[in-house]
Structure formats: structure tokens, C-alpha cells
Hints:
By secondary structure, the chain is α/β, with parallel strands linked by helices. It has helices at 6-28, 54-62, 83-91, 110-120, 139-145, 166-184, 200-206, 219-231, 253-269, 273-298, 302-321, 330-356, and strands at 38-46, 68-76, 98-102, 125-128, 133-134, 153-155, 158-160, 196-199, 235-237, 245-247, 360-361, 364-365.
Amino acid sequence: MIFILYIPFFVYLIIWGALLLGYLKLSKRKTITLDEDLSITIVIPFRNELLRWNNLLKALKNLDDTNSDLMIIFINDHSDDGSFEFLKKWISSFNKKNMLLDLPENMHGKKMAIEYGVNHAKTRWIFTLDADSHIAPNFLNDFESNLQKGKQMYLLPVSEFGRGFFLSSIEASILASITYSCLGCNKPLLANGAGIIYDRNLFLELDPYKSNYNLPSGDDLFLLEKVVAHNRSLIAGFNQKELTVYTTPPSSYKEMIFRAVRWATKMKSVNNKASFFVGGIVVLCNLTLIPICCYHLLNSNLISLLFILFSKFFFDVLLLSLNKNFSFSFNSVVKVTLTYLFYPFHLLIVLACSIFRTTNWKGRSI
């Protein structure tokens, strides 16, 4: 009966192997770039972000838009912490085209804020950014030079910037590797709301949020789900450092737990069976490692146990190494090892909190 516990482990290795092959396919795939002027709107929905503006506002001021038709739209989702007043004052000295919008009283939530911004935009491309994220000064020029023929949605690598809980930064790096690699398998599984650029007309045509406004998060996955169902060949991705979106990591493990519970909640609401299956296998594989270790230790099967643990660790590190934003050093190796050892227990904590704890996000129930 104990051997049933090994099934998620072997399926996990098969999935990771497929992702590695997907990455190799992408590296060999020839793309046709477009020679067109970039017309893009950066849409930034925000709610109570007064203490997290600094990196984004500095990045927007330094952003080179000399070769682009750029508009920046901020949408205030009923903030009550003074962030709207602060931003209104900051914009007075901002030298790029911008709009500062207030979400109407009968509208609320990030999805409605994004949709409100898209409706006010006039450009071909929409780039959604979170208030705690930032990009490199030459981002727009690099994106323009990498536009591909026939693509209407781009998934960007997202990396955590600054000091935060180490487990979160390693998890973010692996998620970025998965997001990119699965495109080589023609099975888009993940998207990060801080790193998506899409065609405005495609968004308006699909209307991705009309049936899920009641859920405060999940804007990224609901949009991905709609585009995949419409035509998955429209989706492309990047792995370059120059096109990376940097986000602020959670400052504590407690904050990371709340974020994980929110992610788990939106995953349950998205109708992407492939994403749900892969996510389930990741959880089961890590959780079953606990009884597997106990079983092998009690039966003194140390060699077979080391083989199992090393196999998973090897595939995890190999997938992590695909992320061009991740650099191996003594410090990072220590963090990866600690993450590997603690992650099964982390998922157990997340699972318990998802079942027994009600979580709020920005003052609203999930």
C-alpha cells in the first residue's frame, strides 16, 4: 500500500522532464520579429499602496519612451490611506503622458480597475503593472525589438527584488521557469499579473472578467484561461533579464502564507485543468515525501531514500537553473537547499490555513 505514495513523485519527475524539453524547444524555435513602432499603455490599478510606491514611481520616471507611444494610467480602487492624494501630487511633476482615474463607486476590485483602464486606453498594447513592481529603464526598447509575428499576449519573467523571506524568492524563480518552459510544450499553465502584456482588442473581445468579478484576485489566470481557450498559439514568453518585472517579496513568512492562501483560492476558481493537475501533483509529491522519508528511515532503506531525495532535488535545481535571473552562489545554494527541505512542511501549513482560516486581501474577503 505504501507504494501508492510514490505515484505523485514519479509523475512529478515526468512533468519536470517535459518542462525541460519545452525549454529546449523554445531555445531552438525560430521566431519572426516585427518591425513596428510600439504603442503601449501601462495600466496600474492600486488600492492602499502608499508605502509601496517608491520603486515603481522611480522606474516610471527613468523609463525611456523616446521611441514609443506611451501612456500610463493609474486607477484608484477606493484607497483610504492617502495613496491617491500622494500620487496626485507626484504626477504634477511627471513628464510622461498619464491619466489618474478614480474607480466609480459602483465598481471595485482589481479586475474592474484593469478593465476600466483598458477601456480608457487608446494604444494597441496593454501592460499591467502592480504598484510594488518595477522595470528597467530600457524595457520598452527591448520589448519592441522582441515583438513576434502572430503573437498577441506575452508572459514576462517576474523576479523578486530586495530583501525578503528566502523561501519566497526561490519559489518565484521556479514559477518563472515553469511559466516560460510550459510554452515550449504549448501548454500555458501560469501567468503573473505583474508581468503580462496583451493586445487591447484581444482583451476587449474575450472580456475575461465578466463572470468572476466577485473574486478579488486571479486577474492573471482568468485572462490566461480565456486566451488559451481562444487560441493558445497567440501566447509567447520571454526569459531575458532585460524584460524582467521585479516585485517586492513578502517581508515575513506570515505574509507569504497569506499570499499562498490567496493564490490557492484563485487556482480553485480557474477552469484550467492542466494547471490544476500540475499544481495538485506538486502538492502531493511534496506532502508524500514526509511519510516516504519516515517509511525508509524506519526500515533502514537509506540508499533508496537518498536516491529519491536527490532525484527530486536534481530536477528542481535543473529547472531553477533555466531562469536567467537566478545566479548560483554559495548563499543561493544554501537557500535552495533549505527551501527544498522545508517546502513540504510549508505546503502542509498552507493547506491547513486554506481550510481553517478566512483571509482578507486589502480589506476585502477572498
